[in-house]
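Deviation from plan, reported transparently: 2,5-dideoxy-2,5-imino-D-mannitol complex.
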Amino acid sequence: MIRTDSVENAMAIRRQLAHDHHRPRYHFQAPANWMNDPNGFIHWRGQYHLFYQHHPFGPLHANMHWGHAVSSDLVHWRDLPMGLTPTPGGPDAGGCWSGCAVDNDGVPTLMYTGVSPEVQCIATGSPDMLTWTKYPGNPVIGAQPAGMTLTGFRDPCVWREGRMWHMVLGSGITSHGQDRGAVLLYRSPDLISWEYLGPLLEDDQPQAGVVWECPSFFPLGDRHVLFISVTSTGYVEYFVGAYREHRFEPDCGAHLDHSGLFYAPQSTLDAFGRRLLFGWLRESRSDALVTAAGWSGMQSVPRVLTLRPDGRPGIAPAPELSTLRRTHWSAHNQTIAPESKGVLPDATGSSLEILAEFAPGSASHFGLKLLQSPDGAEETGVVYDRAAQTLTVDRSRSCATPDGVDISPQSASLPLSDGDTLRLHIYLDGSAIEIFANGHTCLTSRVYPSRRDSVGLDVFAAGGSVGLKSLDVWQMASIWE
Ligand code: DQQ
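Because the crystal trials were delayed, the predicted structure below was used instead.
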């Protein structure tokens, strides 16, 4: 068993696992073992602090601690000692589940869910955030609101509104034999005594046992945005709307990412006024394969949120990522026909950033092939289907030995009007693929090529030709070197 409860050997463990070609080089992840939700993400005294759900003694979900890392540039991270550890006999004996960090007049404070049962706890930190003291009166919320039956009661997201603290909790409300995902709103003068104000939002559709987990609620431009992670579907939904007098009235909502592999995102406002976001990239392979690998889960690349003119959230990779760019290859203004091959033959690798712009022509399908083996037996397609107007990650041939690996396709609807180009911004990193399309559509995938030489890249067209306006590919540096 690899132990990751001590910061001393974290780098040695990272080096030990670096031979695994499914490990990312520039996505943040735990040194080894299990990682899931980002927690306590905060820009504190000029540094980004990121905590995360972590099981330091095994690669599957159990025994939740808060791992902790710090970065001055949002890209390179340094492991810090564990943030939170379950206290035997305490309200978090069964695990320190997700939560947030706030600045309480200069005192860094974590609010999180202790289990089991699910109760809310706080811990205060030293100014350098290296030591944490749990509040002796924990839990600060030990009981669910009187008279309510809930499917879940967890994942506090806290903010200050005037002189009062406010908080939303992930939940689901059972009523007349039906469960509906819900987010509960509370307020407090001191982070310790909390008053329940009512549901901030409740689903209009019932789903048995559903919990709206990991709510994240914040102002964006002149609107408010709510993210929830839905247990029954595995997707993250966003809502944009008006928040007044403790009521949130959404006027639009949709998937935040078009695959269920991006989950439990958490956002923070940094000192530059940017709304930043990390999400957990789940595995797409069996527990047996995860156990053999000795690690599970990573964080997405840092994403920047904005409000687009159409009132929906815009999501873009943080510009700091460009500091990782190394060798660069590019091609411009080419016509790609079905027989075209090898547009950038030297551009290979499994940790790449790719910018591609296509002008649709007569091709029925076009796009990119990633992680291609020299004989073409393994490859992952990023395919635009003109008739269906969809963008798909085709994983059917991503792994020649797919036992225990999910190779089902992942698709996003992406209509293009006449004259529109398809602009793909792709971060490929070991087994992770994050796609940002036309500045508004996110599609996250995981693939597990069996071969180490599955590192080729190409563009393709089928059923006709497509214009490749530009293709830029960078090899990306490791964030640990
Ligand atoms: N993960 C945490 C919970 C949260 C869930 C437990 C979402 O707090 O609801 O690890 O992935």
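The domain at 325-476 is CATH 2.60.120.560 (Jelly Rolls). We consider this an acceptable substitute for the interim report.
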